Amino acid sequence: MDYYDTKDLNRFAEVGKFASGLMKKFFDYYNEATGADGALTRREKALIGLAVAHTKQCPYCIDAYTTQCLESGSNPEQMTEAVHVAAALEAGMTLVHVVQMHNCLQRQGG
Amino acid sequence: MLAPVSIDTLQVNVGKLCNQACHHCHVDASPSRTEIMERKTIDRCLEILRDHPSIKNLDLTGGAPELNPRFDNFVIEAKKLGKHVMVRHNLTVTFDGNPRTKESKRYLPEFFARHGIEVISSLPYYQEYFTDKQRGRGVFNKSIESLKLLNAQGYGQEGGPLVLDLVYNPVGAFLPAAQASLEADFKRELWKQFGIRFNRLYTITNMPIHRFRDQLERLGAYEEYMTKLVNAFNPSAAFGVMCRSMISVGYDGALYDCDFNQMLEMPIEHGKPLTVFDFDHDALIKRRIRFASHCFGCTAGAGSSCGGEIIHE
Predict the structure, then answer these.
(1) Where do the domains of chain B lie, and which CATH numbers do they carry?
(2) Separation of alpha carbons B292 and A98, rounded Å
(3) Predicted TM-score of the model (pTM)
(4) Which residue of B has its CA nearest to A69?
(5) Is there a domain that residue A1 lies in?
(6) Test the B interface: residue of A41, A70, A72, A80 with most B CBs within 10 Å
(7) In this predicted complex, what is the ipTM?
(8) Chain B residue whose CA is closest to A8
(9) Radius of gyration of chain B (CA)
């Protein structure tokens, strides 16, 4: 059994097998939120999607949004920077907890 | 069934010899190819252009078309007939010259300008990485220098008479981005980084044939790419496909519906293989265009043709 086979991404619609109405609502929402130009361009949305895909470490999403970034005109430098934004936020989220550690240290008399 | 609507353009492949050997090339052109259009075939193409005022455009392609020893003469004679002449110019041939004879081609920018030729050049991206990955190491920097020479001749000025168009095609198994947005990126970046101007950017989908197909198969991505093309089928793009308004001529004079059919050796279907020597406009306009799975490359998304997107935003 292979997990995260790229070809499985094309089978996403099968998730609606037992709840087609809900999946239709999801896909309508998803396609409008991610796939169309709005206040953000499709290209900007693809870069956000790529960054989120990395933070959630979803192989399907990394494949899908790498392609979507390329198909909306981004280049590897822009894509890598987008992932660095996500990585920096994650590092910041870890580091900001040091304040919590300091609070605790203070309570412990440290 | 899609039928021809006109024959506006004669697209002539004058030979497969090229100074480059690009990963995506559907012609499999390279310095080792020997197929070159002969003089009698070029003369016959000129007769066809002379006898048919409705054929307004001569679109010269290859290989590097400038490596045909009769290229200059072909251009000059077609211009005398009042035709609009376009050349699919790879930019680097100006510096590389003829890989076989070592003949210099440094005169090309001035030659193109003197004869008012529309220059259409591949530049896969406005950065070195994608360009050299697809077209070979050093191609980007050479292309930039070549574009500067064309600009110096007056090419690429907005509204000017000397038209310089660039062609983008994806470096891998993905569809091109929207033409208008990529054109804006190319114009901004090429001007900011190199002071280069050009007129239009054409986005072209990679055809899953020959060298690009081999690459897809090596990567195990052929099936996935075909699925992508089929899923992106756009009936509006199909309506405007280029084969409805052109005839493609092989180096040996054989006639095809388009350059891709030519490379797949799918000659025009008309009872017998047709060549420029039995060119019959009225019969050709009634021909049945031959389609196969690669045609999904021209009908995906916003469509693709030698003039870029078919459906403009």
Answers:
(1) 9-203+246-288 (3.20.20.70)
(2) 63
(3) 0.88
(4) B177
(5) no
(6) A70
(7) 0.76
(8) B224
(9) 18
